[in-house]
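Structure (tokenized):
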């Protein structure tokens, strides 16, 4: 067994339960998965590194950190072993909820206003018919809180979600995650922000919220079409944020008549972009009274979040994926953001609880003669609870004695 302290050779017995199934009780007690040489802590460390860097670099780093490292192929297999069951579980829950009507227990958190943003990023494929595919990502949050210096804020109660799937499946899974956390009966408004993609706008209808076009993408499209004409861009941008699509289109139409043929096509394209996203142009804060809107800020946090969640690991440095690999890696990153990697790395132990062994009452009544095995079974380890309890060797002995997963 590969542990954080090096390789450990263990001996254990093979048992059969009442149903005739073979079981290694020692493996289950210390959290070893079937046919896996990695301890739970080594497995957790390996998949945590895999969320941030390529498998080859993970292997090099593991060899530098541990007395006995593990190969990149072993790390790759662990990603599939951990992400696979999590994906299957979510697929079952989505099918039961949206096809059979068996909805899980809703959450208890109550908020009057919930913000949801979605975006996608394209990644390269290998050994697939298509050259590229899109990883869809989304975040939900309750608002903002100041942090650090003046003018700096961070999102509060951020809930991420991502995966390789179509738009309908994305919102089915994301809405299920949010339903487990929030009590939507108390939520008065849901604002869904996006860059104009159709699958994001469909999410606003599914969640029963209003759609908000992302301001970064709106301004970028205007600057590209108007060739950095800042004055005209500002006029059109202000008209859009007020929800006056007719005025914005009139300004662009006048500009189109003064442009060259190529520039006119770009202006026509941004006019179509504005009219297509007409329902999401007006600032969502105009829907509330002045007192409520003073504490609210403009949306647009998805652009940086999709870069941190997906692009840094799956898109940059010339990486390419199979669809199965991209699906597993996106789920593993999501589980890391949720803090669930350790729970699933230890799933073998939790799926099969250890049998409760009844203690022989006669042993307590019988005199404990010197050399009786009962004395050895109930012996203690003073060194493990003394002044050396925090030392690595004491922690290692404690794990071997009591089955705690510090390896």
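Design, position by position:
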């Amino acid at each position: 067994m590969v542990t954080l302290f090096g390789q450990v050779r263990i001996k254990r017995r093979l048992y059969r339960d009442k149903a005739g199934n073979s079981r290694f009780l020692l493996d289950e007690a210390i959290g070893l998965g079937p046919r896996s040489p990695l301890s739970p802590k080594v497995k957790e460390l390996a998949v945590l590194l895999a969320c941030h860097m390529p498998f080859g670099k993970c292997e090099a780093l593991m060899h530098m950190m541990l007395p006995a490292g593990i190969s990149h192929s072993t790390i790759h297999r662990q990603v599939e072993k951990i992400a696979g069951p999590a994906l299957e579980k979510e697929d079952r829950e989505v099918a039961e909820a949206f096809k059979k009507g068996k909805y899980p227990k809703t959450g208890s958190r109550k908020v009057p206003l919930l913000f949801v943003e979605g975006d996608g990023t394209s990644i390269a494929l290998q050994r697939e018919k298509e050259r590229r595919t899109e990883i869809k990502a989304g975040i939900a949050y309750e608002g903002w809180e100041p942090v650090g210096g003046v003018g700096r804020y961070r999102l509060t109660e951020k809930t991420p979600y991502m995966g390789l799937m179509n738009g309908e499946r994305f919102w089915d899974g994301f809405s299920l995650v949010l339903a487990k956390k929030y009590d939507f009966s108390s939520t008065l408004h849901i604002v869904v922000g996006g860059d104009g993609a159709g699958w994001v706008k469909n999410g606003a209808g599914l969640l029963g919220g209003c759609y908000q076009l992302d301001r970064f993408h709106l301004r970028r499209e205007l600057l590209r079409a108007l060739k950095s004409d800042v004055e005209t861009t500002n006029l059109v941008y202000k008209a859009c944020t007020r929800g006056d699509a007719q005025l914005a289109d009139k300004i662009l139409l006048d500009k189109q008549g003064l442009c060259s043929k190529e520039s006119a096509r770009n202006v026509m394209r941004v006019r179509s972009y504005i009219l297509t996203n007409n329902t999401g142009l007006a600032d969502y804060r105009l829907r509330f009274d002045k007192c409520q809107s003073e504490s609210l800020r403009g949306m647009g946090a998805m652009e940086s979040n999709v870069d941190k969640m997906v692009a840094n690991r799956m898109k940059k440095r010339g990486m390419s994926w199979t669809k199965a690999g991209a699906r597993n890696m996106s789920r593993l990153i999501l589980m890391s953001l949720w803090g669930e990697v350790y729970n699933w790395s230890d799933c073998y132990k939790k799926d099969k609880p250890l049998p409760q062994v009844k203690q022989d009452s006669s042993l307590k009544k019988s005199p404990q003669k010197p050399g009786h095995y009962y004395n050895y079974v109930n012996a203690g380890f003073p060194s493990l609870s003394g002044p050396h309890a925090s030392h690595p060797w004491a922690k290692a002995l404690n794990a071997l004695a009591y089955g705690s997963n510090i390896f």
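Reviewer-requested clarification: Residues 2-97+341-351 form one domain. The longest strand covers residues 113-125.
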